[in-house]
Each structure stands twice: as structure tokens, then as C-alpha cells.
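**User:**
Everyone, produce one record:

**Assistant:**
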Amino acid sequence: MSPEEQRTSPTERFRLDDKVVLITGASSGLGAGFARAVAAVGGTLVLAARRDEQLESVAREIRDQGSTVMTHRTDVASLDQCENVVRAAVDEFGRVDVLINNAGVGPAGGALREDPAVFRSTIEINLSGVYWMSRACAPHMPPGSSIVNIASVLGSMGSRFPQAGYSASKAGVLGLTRDLAQQWSLRRGIRVNALCPGYFESEITGGEGTDALHALVSDGSILQRFGEQEELDSALLFLASPASSYMTGASLVVDGGLSAIV
């Protein structure tokens, strides 16, 4: 076979056939969308979240399309629960090839009025949870594996709303991404990158304040709109798959030009 025949086509490099992909926060929003996208490119799914009923609903939908899906109730703020879901995945499939650290919360409120318990919880879920899950998975990830941490554009730019805990946690995720990439990419063959969304339709961006958020994005970004799930899915699949094999310790921003306008 010639080198040209051996070379993988660009589109094939985005495939995740026979790869075991663990996604946290997969019961709704961006996480559920990521699960559907991974299934569409052949991945075997391990879906983790705190809400059993919603999680099983997403899994049932994807199973109906012919994909293999396992679910496990998991609170990523608990190291024990992170280790439990990884153990269950390894018992079932033998390994984890891709970890997508998506679980997160996004409370807003003035720093002098915010309940300290809310701040602590935000850090525990958004930052500590990424660390616990990554640490639990790494020993079971073969060379060539990938970790994708879902950070935020607000990890590297100021929020126009009071979100101290959220912004601090996402900035921490970017630092953690760089450090784990340095520790594991050569030694273990695990690439670690961050995906930094701007504003997309999700539970975090819904509810009270939605109109103000849409106005902010309309006035303060180049594309002047919220992103669509599939526009983020493409970036997620790039980082998760061999398509990004020369990337580690990097942060990929998908924000419609929000961070380009000062």
C-alpha cells in the first residue's frame, strides 16, 4: 500500500469509531448536544450527570439511533463519584478514549451579595470536577486519547455581568488544561485542550436575564447573535478526535467574535 493510500482522509480524522467517550453534564443543554454529535461519528458513549431521568431520556434517544450508550448518575464535585463512573466505564468497555468535561453551573450575582456557599459550589463543580474526572480517567486512557475541558470565553475576558465564581472557575480550567497537557501529553500520550464557548442556547444562558444577554451579544460581538449547538459540536469533535492530533494545552474560542471586540 502506498503512503497516499495509507494516509487517512481529512473527514475520517473526525471519526470516533470504536472510541469510548465519557461526557459529564450530559443530561441536557450543550452536553446532550455533544452526546448526539459524538454518536453521529461512531463513538461509544458513557453519559454522566446528576439528573437520572433526563440523562436516561437523552440516552434512550441516542440508543434508538443505533449507538451504544451507558449512563451513570454522577456529581463531579465528588471525587468518589468521579472514580465510580470511570470504574463502571472501564468495567464495561475496558478503557476511556475521550473525556469531555462539560458539567458546569453559571450563577450570577454581585460579589458582596453572593452566598459564599454558591461560590464554593461553583468552584467545586466547574473547576474541581474537571480535575477529579481527569485524574480518575487518566490511568485508563491509552496513548492517543484526548481530554476536552469545556471552559468559557469568560475565562479570559471580563464578564459584563457579575459572575465572580463562574469567571474564576473557567479561568482556572484554562490553567488546569495547560498544566495537565504538560504532565500527560508526552508521558501518557493524552492530549488535553479546552473549548471556550461564547453564548449558546443552554440552561445556563436561559431563564432570568436572557433578554439582557441577547442584547449584550447583539451589541458586543461581530456576528451579533447566539451560537447554535451544531456550530459548537464541530469544534468539540475537532478537539476530541485525531483531527487535532498536533494540539495540546490549547484553548479554542468559539464565540462569534465576542472576545474580538474590546
